Amino acid sequence: MSNTAIVTDSTAYLPSDQIEQSGITVVPLTVSFGDTSYQEEIDMSTASFYEMLKEVNDFPTTSQPSIGRFMEVFEELSKEYESIITIHLSSGISGTYQTAITAGEEVDGVEVYAFDSEISCAPQGYYALEAAKMAYEGETVDTILNRLEELKRHTRAYFIVDDLNHLHRGGRLNGAQALVGSLLQIKPILHFKDKLIVPFEKVRTSKKAWNRVFELFEEDAGTGASIRATVIHANRPEQAENIRSKLADAYPNADIDIGYFGPVIGTHLGEGGLGISWCKF
Ligand code: MYR
């Protein structure tokens, strides 16, 4: 029996069966269309989000969970657990991590340890699942946090969007870079550096961008190391499957699945974004 509960937020986009099996508690972020707000994965599925995007003129906005929501979750878990590890999307792109820390300080009877994934989506999910497995096996908080730091060092993620203006509008990409990108019609390969989204390399076409990402994948997967990877898409399941099957055929040492950019991340990347993350386990 574990003394440590694991919490993450909805932007890990963990499949519901994995949430159930691992016992992870998920705190939702919110997407709003006009005056109507939806907790993603609860009030709004990813499929209905991309449908709705086509129908509206105004772009949606997103918000982090409230401090009250985190406190409710932590108070409930404090009845059963001595400690909580709460794992969140990068503190450089959302206030969620900081709010979780503040909520943890307000709640008595349980120690709350916040972990900044410095990324989001599938890699955040890898960390949450690994933490849940280790907590179940009775590992201490320190051991789990050290392991998460180690996984972070072995994680890479790159993504390519159709239109940089979504990231620019949401303030998640440096303005000058977005302008240059749109004007020149380039498809920069994006990644996280020091918790922020920055271009990794500026490439002119999506084909060239993906060929470069495949080279980067080869650097790790080509060593024969045991790799867990996820091709992540914003409503582009067929393209994601093409990439997945190509890599799965070439690298039997890589366990590759498909994930998605849900409503909150999809708001900032725009429909058509595609990425891949991997981690050497
Ligand atoms: C909030 O309102 O607090 C949420 C803000 C979310 C910003 C998302 C920016 C794009 C992240 C891309 C992640 C790609 C991971 C592979």
UniProtKB/TrEMBL annotation:
Could you list this entry's UniProt keywords, alphabetically sorted. Answer: Lipid-binding
Protein's name in the database: DegV family protein
The lineage, from the top, is: Bacteria, Bacillati, Bacillota, Bacilli, Bacillales
Highest taxon listed in the record's lineage: Bacteria
Report the InterPro entries cross-referenced here.
DegV, DegV_C, DegV_domain_contain
**GO molecular function terms noted in the UniProt entry:** lipid binding
Q: Which Pfam families match?
A: DegV
Q: Which NCBIfam families match?
A: DegV
Alphabetical list of PROSITE patterns matching this protein: DEGV
Biological source species = Salibacterium salarium
